[in-house]
Request: fold
Amino acid sequence: MSNKSIGWNSKTLKEMLEKSEDLLEKTNHYYGLDHLSLKEQDLFRYERSFASLRGALVSARETALHVAASPIVKEIGELCFALYTPEGDSVVVSTGILVHVHTMSEAVKFMIKEDYENDPGIKLGDIFLNNDPDCGNVHTTDVQTIIPIFWKGELIGWAGGVTHQIDTGGITPGHDLVAAIQRFDDGVYYTCRKIGSNDHIWRDHMINARRSVRTPLYWELDEKCRLAGDLMIRDAVIEFIEREGIDYYKRFIREAIEEGRLILQERVKERLIPGRYRSAAFFDLPMKEEAWQPRAKINKITNMPLEIIIKDDGGLSLCFEGSSGPGANPMNCAKGAMEGGQWVLLTQILIYGDKVNDGAYFAVEKNYPLGTWCNPGDPYLSYQSPWGNLIPAYTSMMKCLSYGLFSRGYREEVVPGYGFTGDGIQGGGIYTSGPLKDQRWALSTFEISGQGLGASAVRDGLDHGYAMWNPEADLGDVETWELFQGGVPYLARSIKPNTAGFGKYRGGTAFAGVAIVAFSKEVDFFGAREGLVFHGAGGMHGGYPNATGYRLYAKNTNMKEIIGSQKEYPLGDDDPSNGEFERLLKGEITRKSYCSIYPVTFENYDLFYHTQSGGPGYGDPLERRLDLVKKDLDNEIYTTDLVYKVYGVVADYNEVKGEWIIDEEKTTERRNVIKDERKTKSVTFEDFWENEKKKITEGRFKEHIKRMYNESLSLSKQWKEEFLNFWDLPDKFTMEVK
Amino acid sequence: MRQYDDKTLERLINGELTWQELKMIIGGRKDSDRFDKVINILQNRVSWKEKIILPLHEHLYIVLNNGERVVKCDCGYEFGNYKENWKKKCRIRVRDAEADINELYPKYMGCDPEWEEIREYYCPGCFTLLDTEVVPPGYPVIFNFLPDIDVFYEKWLGRKAPDK
Reply:
């Protein structure tokens, strides 16, 4: 307990936060700043100040990950750092997994609102740990270390660092669990917990943490990594104040955020069009046959409608009215996850290259309706894999803003969406031989960082190189992943044909891999990705969504014999209707049209296949240039039967030249046939409306569809009104669910 | 202020720029005269005379026709007032059976019709595919974009809309 307030001018942190929020609400300017005096007085000093702090944060990140970090952090850079105001608003950020900049902001505000200043106290040298999604995080696997920064007894800011862990001790091994259905399944929770003092992590904490997770070495390395980065930031801030003065620093951090807010508004006015934008995304959770727990045994499809209003002052508002409810599954999203997802997309679409900080956050109004998947209001639900909803939901944001970018003429910025970073198969086991015998290994491959990006309005999407939560995405080296998942050596990794969303410009393509279980026991695998619905909001202006995921694995195989006799084994699943697994293996081969599965137990020589996600397409596929289709065939992005059916292209492989040759005459004929089919197989809107309405009134839906409509209709008066109006249904209309 | 000549913008619209050229445009500051230049290029490309007020889509434009702002395809087909969802004037194909979905997507790689259907919206004039919608059966048609044209022209561009 302390009697002296640590805020500025003897105020408490709570008083400072209340004042900041009050000023924003009353003036619509961050901290009530109606002009940027430091910038006006000395532009060079102002910009140098921002650059020096940003440089310090980037340097802290680069140094810390090389000092001490787990492979997942070191290889892919699954970490980032940020500097916050005393109230918890980010001023400047490092590079890296930027989704977490605003999540830590929420964690600092949680500590302030819970009066940590008095108990447990906030002192120079204190170390706080957080991974609780309900008070500023995405999921428990993202672990944050936050330290206060003081100058002559006053708290002048916070340094925060976050890393993504391979395992946090949940109900099953892994980082995005499928089997978690309540908080108590999510793994170890640190709710803004003090874990150290005098710049030293307490021994009892580290003992507890090591015994709470399946990968204690990586946990410890990453704690040191985060703390090292935070301390470097603290030193840089102190140096900054010694150079520029405390008064300058205090004014500067406010102005930098207000400028960030203004930049977003100006960027909106520069690149978009005011008006109303709408889209909708969906995610399937077919758990009726998969779940262990009785109340989790339901099939669910989540409705994620998004409306964006761009106002005349350049401000944005995001509204998720009509969203489905939460559930006994790990995909529920708390506020921190929603804010993080939104923030990271803003930094990629609109505010890259300028003052990237929480100013952008303050320029956006949001409505996450209480009681829905995006604001359940219940901390006892599971929040272990909110990405399952978050990632598809925010494709709508990219798509909506792309409509504006297109109309404004900035076609090169259009991106209708991105692939789902999901199907890195997860799990773990125990080594039965070698130098790590009897030690646990965990499988959380971050190949998922390499998904297909959507096409733009002027070119194809980026192939296997995008993750929505990390602008520096990279699928990584197989050899590095095998360092910590040695029980599943890779047999193959290659382009997965026909995964890129079709269009005049195609989406980025996906890749896939085959792995074998080896030298291990007690091996469990699971995975999550859309499978029965397309990912996100689909394509744009006539482009199609990228292919869905599915599940394929083989148990009790004859791989030992195949290896011994050096016979051919599966290297992929290019044609699922004539699979290599079935053709080359003996054993129990399982295919499922859905992709999210609870853990399956594997033995040595069992095989699994995983496929990443392509990106959605743009424009009518019949308008795709023939030279691009030829390139697709030569590079095995698409197969010849698919380009015939979808792109109307007739091609033959020339064995001598080793390339595909397109028959332009036959292609013209084929494209005319497709156009004719469009005429004969389409109906007027009125006929479509009648047919579609019958599906509703005659109750032809499966239970999961009825449940989706029932939830949206009961949770949102606005969505219900629009639904009933559109289909001309009576006010009393309901969708009965058993 | 950064500017691009008409030839460069024509090549951009045609998808003809190399990655090296495109990268400079994506990475650089935006050219504030882009909107007007692109509209001029598009106006010269269409065969009809109505004034384009706002490009809405790869093939659709909001144009002025007899004092009304209507959505028009580059083939000449008109979809009515821009405040109504132009999809309601389209010819529509619904792929809600496995066989129809597998005409496009390989087995296991498309949606399950018990969970989601594919709606294809064609221009009734030229039968260009204008939009695809992937939604659960019974989902209302989505009205993707309703621009506020007057605010855009008057408050953001500082001039009246062409019809005002």
Q: What stands out?
A: The radius of gyration of chain A is 26 Å. The longest strand of chain A covers residues 275-286.
